[in-house]
Amino acid sequence: MQKIAIQGVRGAFHEAAAKKYAGESIQLVECMTFRDLCKSLKSGQSDMAVMAIENTIAGSLSQNYGLINEYQLSIVGEVYLRIQMQLLALPGVELSAIKFIYSHPVALNQCNFFLDGLSGVQVYESKDTAESARMIREGNLTDTAAIAGETAAQLYSLDILKGNIETNKENYTRFLVLTNQSNQSVEGDKASISFELGHQPGTLADILTVFKKNRINLTNIQSMPLVGKPYEYRFHADLTWESKVDFEKAMESAGEFANSIILLGIYKRSNFNFQ
Amino acid sequence: MQKIAIQGVRGAFHEAAAKKYAGESIQLVECMTFRDLCKSLKSGQSDMAVMAIENTIAGSLSQNYGLINEYQLSIVGEVYLRIQMQLLALPGVELSAIKFIYSHPVALNQCNFFLDGLSGVQVYESKDTAESARMIREGNLTDTAAIAGETAAQLYSLDILKGNIETNKENYTRFLVLTNQSNQSVEGDKASISFELGHQPGTLADILTVFKKNRINLTNIQSMPLVGKPYEYRFHADLTWESKVDFEKAMESAGEFANSIILLGIYKRSNFNFQ
């Protein structure tokens, strides 16, 4: 059975993303931090890893690109997961009995409209959505609710007190699928690259013009300051194309403008698919 | 006395950034989340706010650009703070007695080289660097250390058991200084802007070429997916210039390519200044 590393515990959104990509018959390796997830893959403890990389509300988890570089991992796929937030409580508990709500800060932020409408309830940040659900079950807490996904409700036998309380219904998280093997030759229509530019003004415009001329579309770009090199930057970009020859030509030309350019992986693009 | 909102509690890096910008004679308004920080400014509870926006290790806190947009705040300045991490414990406690270390996940990540060299110590994530220091003082914990800044050591009378344990010595955090007043006419040499582009390939290349032609330098760029509009993007960018006339011309031309373009503030650029 495939061993897939996820960040966080069973019942969290990373589990749902892993199953969407690889099916139900997988063995999960729970990793407490994103660094641990990379280590698990590098050491052979897991065959594959699923790592959140951007969210419509919280933005980019740009530090994760740094980890992929540092551990020399390859991106082999992506998963988009619609994020729906549920207010979970012990069966039989009513909304009027709830005095405390726990969840991860990003999840709380995604439900701010619902939370602003409550009165007499104290909201607390926790480390994980699923952890908050587990705490209610294990502590038998009848005055506390958690904000988490449906997977957590099933895992800890909690009821959905109020469903789909996320403010924005088109809320999604994009996950990358990683392996420890090189992945440069696979047929695909999307790539993630990383490149460094010096302080010379306008170099980024030059590189993006190369992509434009070769009909390459940019779906994501993030600049990151370079540690130890003030005023120099590393950029992370995701590219899509209709013809792979265009991509290969663009990469060749782009190399002239960048101090270094790394291909993190070529893979098949996925889509939002909000049914 | 000026009331300045900070994220987190007294003793955290936000306090040090606020004092570097506005001096020692300020009144701090502690805000638990970045959203609370914006609310505090909007409601007039505070006159100014200091908000972390990027870090050499953790990358960009891109969700904060979204909050600045949402609450229609203005950027009036920036502060770069060198981040040095200290291992703090009760006076008299030796390193060999430490069984547990607590700190914020980002701070732990910044000290991973030091932590990997320890054995027999369990590392736990907490909500805040200064909170971890306070917990040790209040609980009188003689087997526990916290990773935090020097301000926290002073505030909670803890000793520095091991100094400057951050892996990268050129580690800094950039903070934005915000107000609730409009700030479009001030003389400055740096601006933060936000713009939306449709799905048409190459538009970003066109806009960056406009900046290049007008001698505008780009010091930061982040793309963010637009909530409710799959395949459309909002970009955040920071720009610097030698002549403000160049900037004004560039903004006029850039407007032709973007669906909308917002000026978040013009301010005097700061620098890393690692003494």
UniProtKB/TrEMBL annotation, chains A, B:
EC number from the UniProt entry: 4.2.1.51
A GO biological-process term: L-phenylalanine biosynthetic process
Annotated pathway: Amino-acid biosynthesis; L-phenylalanine biosynthesis; phenylpyruvate from prephenate: step 1/1
Ranges of residues in domain ACT: 192-268
Annotated ranges, domain Prephenate dehydratase: 3-180
Swiss-Prot/TrEMBL catalytic activity: prephenate + H(+) = 3-phenylpyruvate + CO2 + H2O
UniProt GO cellular component terms: cytoplasm
InterPro entries the UniProt entry points to: ACT-like_dom_sf, ACT_dom, Preph_deHydtase
Protein name (record): prephenate dehydratase
Taxonomy of the source species: Bacteria, Pseudomonadati, Bacteroidota, Cytophagia, Cytophagales
